[in-house]
Every structure is written in structure tokens, then in C-alpha cells.
Amino acid sequence: MVYVILIVIIIIGFVLWMVSVYNSFVTLRERVFNARAQIAAQIESRWDAISNLISATKEYAQHETSLLENITATRASLHRDSSIEEIEQTDAELNNVLGRLLAISEAYPDLKASQVYQTTMESVNKFEDHVRHSRMIYNDVVTRFNRRIKQFPTNIVGTMFGFKEQQYFEQTEAKAEMPAW
To answer: Any idea what the Cα angle at residue 145 is, between residues 142 and 151, rounded to 5°?
Structure first.
């Protein structure tokens, strides 16, 4: 009888441990998704700021209007389930747009000197800082999640329930060489 009670206690303890580990994986995975969504939201805000910059630029550069409208049309929609590749691609497109806008502003000194342009560029820079900060938070959360997946014995539970390592945001050469606006 004592052995049966002991075996039942061990089984209950094991089941409770598995539930606890499973729940910790779910919590960490949700934090990863949330952090990725934060990056997407910051990039969307950056797009909004650049859209305002495009509007200000249109007033100065009437003959560039079709180019600016094409730029606005390239905006991609990001969301919580966007992949790292989609976010990186959207961010690269956004940086390309910003580069073209900077080139246009160089041709129009009055635009570059306008208060609207300067204020909007400050907003773009602020959102770029937010994106950078959000990426650091994301990579930190991914590190915790991936570490938990690799550690013994939690890796057994993670494998049983199909939890997979998450991808990090990495600094690309383009980002490393990017000038400050």
C-alpha cells in the first residue's frame, strides 16, 4: 500500500512538473510574439511618420509627387505573426524610402529648413530608436525561450509539445553601415 501511494505521489509530481514546464513555454512563446508585435508596431509608426514626411515633401517637390505616391504604396502591413524576414524586408524598404526622401530634401533646401520637415525627421529618428530598443527586448526574450528549449530536462517537454527555437533579429551589413539621419 505504501508503494502504491509513493508511486501515485511521484506520478502526480511528474504531471505537475510537466504542466509547469509546458505553461512556462507558453508564457515565453507569448512574450516572443508580443515582442515581435512591438517591433511591427514601431515600424508601422515609423511608416506613419514617413508618410507625414512625404506629405510635407510633396508641397515642395510637386514634380516628385508620382514618385512619392509610389513610395507610399509600398508600405507593407505587419502584425504579430509577421516573420522576422517580413519585418526585415519592410524595414529595409522603409530605409530605402527614407534614403530617397533624404535625396529629395537635399535638392530642396527650403524643405530641409522647414519646421514641418525637421519635426517629422525627429519623429522618424525617435521611432527608429524605438525599433532598435524593441529588437533588443525581442532578442532578450528569444534568448530566454531558446535557452529553456535547450536545457535538460525541459527540452524533453518542449520537444514533446512541438516548441521550436525562435529566430533572432541580427544586424545586417546594411544596418551596420547605416548613417544617422
So the answer is: 135
Better-predicted residue by pLDDT, 180 or 41: 41
Strands (E), 21-175: none
pLDDT of 100: 76
* Residue-range domains of the chain with CATH: 2-176 (1.20.1440.20)
Query: What pLDDT score does 60 carry?
Result: 66
Mean pLDDT over residues 101-115, rounded?
A: 74
Whole-angstrom Cα Rg for the chain = 24
The C-alpha atoms of residue 85 and residue 65 are separated, in whole angstroms, by 30
Q: Could you identify the residue written with the cell 508580443? A: 34
CB 110 within 8 A of CB 60: yes
What pTM does this model have? 0.73
- Please say whether the beta carbons of 19 and 11 come within 8 A: no
CB atoms within 10 A of CB 80: 12
Grid coordinates representing 108 are 530642396
Bond from prior residue into 179 cis (ω within 30 degrees of 0): no
The count of other CB atoms within 10 Å of the CB of residue 95 is 17
Q: What angle do CA 45, 85, 40 make, to 5 degrees?
A: 20
What number of H helices and E strands is found in the chain? Answer: 7, 0
